[in-house]
Amino acid sequence: MSLVEVKALHISFGEREVVSDINLSIAQGQRVGVVGESGSGKSLTALSIIDLLPEAAIQHGEITRNLPKGDKLRGKHIGMVFQEPMTTLNPLMRVGDQIKEALELHLPDIDFDSRVAELVAEVDLPPTTALRYPHELSGGQRQRIGLAIALAGEPELLIADEPTSALDMITQAQIISLIRRICDQRKMALLFISHDLGAVSALCDHIHVLEKGRQVEHGETTAVLKSPREDYTKRLIAAAKPTRRRLTTRKIGTPLLELTGISKRFKLPGPFWAKKQYLQALDDISLTINEAECVGLVGPSGCGKTTLSRIIAGLNKAQHGAIRFDGQDISQQRGQMPKAARRELSMVFQDPFGSFDPRLTMAHSLYEPLNLMPELGQTERRERVEMALERVGLSPDMLNRHPHAFSGGQRQRFAIARSLVLRPKLVVLDEPVSALDVSIRGDVLELLAELREKFGIAYLFVSHDLDVVRAVADRVLVMERGRIVEQGDVDAVFDAPQADITKRLLNARLSI
Amino acid sequence: MDSGLFARALKHPSFRLGLFGSAGFLLLAIVSVFWTPHPTDIVDVPNRFGEFSSVNWLGTDYLGRDQLSLLMVGIATSLKVAALAVAIGALIGVPLGLIAAAQRGWLEAFILRGNDFIFAFPAIISAIIITTLFGPSAINAMVAIGIFNIPVFARVARGAALSLWTLEYVDAAKLSGLSNGQISFRHILPNIASLLIVQATIQLSLGVLAEAGLSYIGLGTQPPETSLGLMLKEAQSFFFGFPMQAIIPGIAIVLFVISFNLLGDGLRDTLDPKLTKAGGIDVAS
Q1: 3-state DSSP assignment of residue A215
Q2: Which of B169, B176, B280 sits opposite A369 (nearest CB)?
Q3: What mean pLDDT, rounded, does chain B reach?
Q4: Residues B160-173: pLDDT tens digits?
Q5: Which residue has the higher pLDDT, A336 or A105?
Q6: Are A158 and A81 contacting, i.e. CB atoms less than 8 angstroms apart?
Q7: CA nearest neighbour of A310 among A366, A283, A349, A339
Q8: Which one of A421, B78, B200, B284 is separated from B110 by 20 to 30 angstroms, measured CA to CA?
């Protein structure tokens, strides 16, 4: 008999149906995964099981929970781990007390302190962690505490809603193996919700694929992954294994960008009388990017890859070192980057939603870079913008609309178009596909490869996703704590990693 | 502000009530410029302390002037003083806040410490200093209140602008070679405008109160002009004999301030996505 049985579940907000006809069953100790993109209704499905739907939601269908009657449902029989470890804990309470709070609710007759210590040990944290406040813990540690709280009521079912999306790759792999171990030990059922097919397949025996509120496919994980029946599932699986793209007609050229001995440190906040504390964000970085070359930059979070890419794009300044771009020294200590260099260099940001001013039309945003070329006339400007749009496969009549009218993928195309308006020689791509749903990632990567082939643009491709980097980059740089610890041809580095961090990053991959 | 937002705000009961009240007061003030039921500068002493009647709807004051006419002119004066004080505060404070957020460093520290300096003095004491130095008048009261609006607007503008400076579209604008000033006007100001509008309505109601306070202690509007605070002050001596003389302008001040506060609250509720999001789950996306 299954623990939870969902039959013909429909959820709607007013007229709009966001979940339609979902059937799902979770047996005792079974690990079930729900995969879908944003807006597929996967979170709402989970919330309906734990009876936490927002008030405005109207729910039809049958949810049978074979759990003891009379007790509280939430916490006691079903535990939940949320996505954002930063906001799920109360910042004013020691984390041990927050675990204790859950214990007091569900198991009032036990010795709380020893049980808290057991739970902290179960999620692989040192005993002293219980005395700390959330801000003293890293994201991964907080997620472990979140898990300990969910386990406090000894639930039969654990619901985990994107528990690893906010974490870096190495921590994600650790949390996933922890969840798997705990489920096995406690014989606890799991409902794991994620947009990441890799994470779901690493954990779950049964998988449901959702698209726009509908259940597209479900079955045994291995069966679904090996022989997907529906197009949508096939697309998801294909996107998780990005196609390899290399230059075919064009050759990699002469050095375009050369960094020598770039260093940057940040002053840490503290009282003015105390000894100054510094964080060495970049430590003696030297690198070269050639014309039409795609260089991948990978590393764990906090390794300095964002700082480095911002320095290359000219948004931040380095304290030491020289930058030569296109045969010209652009690392002046004072003043702005010269306009001539700005024209040749642009950047695409990670978040397609944050990279456009919500109050301006796309036209305003796309004409903005032409500010650097005041010598151009009105018709030339329009030609440039329209050509850039054409290159990314968008039409000029979309220009009069505001950013909110477009999907994430379209916005990222606009962002790429904006970076192309100036016809740059180098584009810094800061996690250009991480915020996109997997099914459109492939399109954007294909577009980038095509542009490189046609126009010989060089890329610095910053990403945490090693599979994507391997697919698109010619050469890869691995960073750790502000230093480049390993570099070379992407296949050589990934096939025979030398540095410890490269090995750890490669091991943390959740491939399907 | 787009029309969709206005329609959304209209559904908010306190916004509707506030809009209705504020519009009423504004209308009275505008009408008073062109027409009042009776002239306010003609003294008719035999007819003083008149009761409510069909000629003088709200009676007459201690000089026999029509109370309703005085009230209308008084509302206009109070509104003018408060509005100009808000304008002074916003026109100086908002640029200061934008500069502080854009430049950071010593300039920001300087502006912030300047704010603290103004905040360190009780408003009424500075107003007394200003009016002692330059003589009591509506204009000087306006300047005194306006100076206190500067740090309020500077803080709101800086706080909101700081969070916008970390966004990627601002980085994109920097990459396009826009100067900090251009970014502030093109990207930052339009995006914080809604917050500033809310702050302005709240400062407006505070300005009406401040003007009434200053006039009441004789540092604001001077006779023969009139304002709500001055009417209160003049009625004070006759309060036990003729309480309506004080109650009428008093009620007017209360309604005035409540209307603008409700308007500001309603606007803030509509504009602040953190307060409108229901249930904590963004169901729209």
Answers
A1: strand
A2: B176
A3: 82
A4: 999 889 888 999 99
A5: A105
A6: yes
A7: A349
A8: B200
- Pick from A342, A345, A354: CB nearest B168: A354
Inter-chain contact B168–A56, Cβ cutoff 8 Å? no
Residues A310/A303/A473/A319 CA torsion (nearest 10 deg): 40
The A214-220 sheet, strands edge to edge: A78-81, A157-161, A189-194, A31-36, A206-211, A214-220
DSSP B186: I
Q: Residue B283: list chain A partners with CB under 8 A.
A: 13, 18, 54, 56-57
Chain B: residue whose CA lies nearest to A370: B176
Cα–Cα distance measured from residue A10 to residue A31, given in angstroms and rounded to the nearest whole number: 23
Strands across the sheet with A320-325, in order?
Answer: A278-290, A255-267, A320-325, A328-329
Question: Is there a contact between A357 and B280 if contact means CB atoms under 8 Å apart?
Answer: no
Q: Tokens standing for B152?
A: 């309020």
Length of chain B: 285
Chain A CB contacts of B195 under 8 Å are none
Highest mean pLDDT among A49-58, A178-187, A267-276, A397-406: A178-187
Angle CA A42–A192–A168, to nearest 5 = 100
Three-state DSSP class for B266?
A: helix
The predicted-structure confidence for A106-138, as pLDDT tens digits, reads as follows 887 888 888 999 999 988 898 888 898 888 888
**Which of A368, A407, A411 to probe by mutation at the B interface, max B CB count within 10 Å?**
A368
Query: What CATH number belongs to B3-34+75-271?
Result: 1.10.3720.10
- pLDDT at B100 (0 to 100): 93
By CB neighbour count within 10 A (0-12 exposed, 13-18 middle, 19+ buried), where does A54 fall? middle
Residue A29 has pLDDT above 70, yes or no: yes
Cβ distance of B178 and A351 shorter than 8 Å = no
Q: Is the pLDDT of residue B53 over 80?
A: no
* CA–CA min distance A209, chain B (Å): 19
**pLDDT tops 80 at residue B55:** no
The number of beta carbons lying within 10 Å of the beta carbon of residue A500 is 11
Instruction: Compute the nearest-CA separation of A13 from chain B (Å).
Output: 8
Give the nearest chain A residue to B177 (CA atoms): A372
Cβ contact A405:B211 at 8 Å: no
Of the listed ranges A117-121, A267-271, A324-328, B198-202, the least confidently predicted one is A267-271
Domain ranges of chain B: 3-34+75-271
Spell out the residues 6+ positions from residue A35 whose beta carbon is closer than 8 angstroms to its own: A42, A194, A195, A196, A197, A200, A207, A208, A209, A210, A236
Residue B45 DSSP label: G
CB contact under 8 A, A313 and B172: no
Mean pLDDT value across chain A? 86
Mean pLDDT over A257-277 rounds to: 83
Spatial distance between the Cα atoms of B66 and B50, rounded to a whole number of angstroms:
9
Contact between A68 and A77 under an 8 Å Cβ cutoff? The reply is: yes
Q: Which long-range contacts (CB under 8 A, 24 or more apart) does A244-251 make?
A: A244/A470, A244/A471, A245/A445, A245/A446, A245/A449, A245/A471, A245/A472, A246/A474, A247/A292, A247/A452, A247/A453, A247/A474, A248/A453, A249/A453, A250/A292, A250/A452, A250/A453, A250/A456, A251/A292
- Minimal C-alpha gap between B99 and chain A (Å): 18
> To the nearest whole angstrom, how far is the Cα of A372 from the nearest Cα of chain B?
6
- Write the ipTM: 0.76
CA–CA distances in Å: residue B127 to residues A464, B88, B124: 59, 15, 5
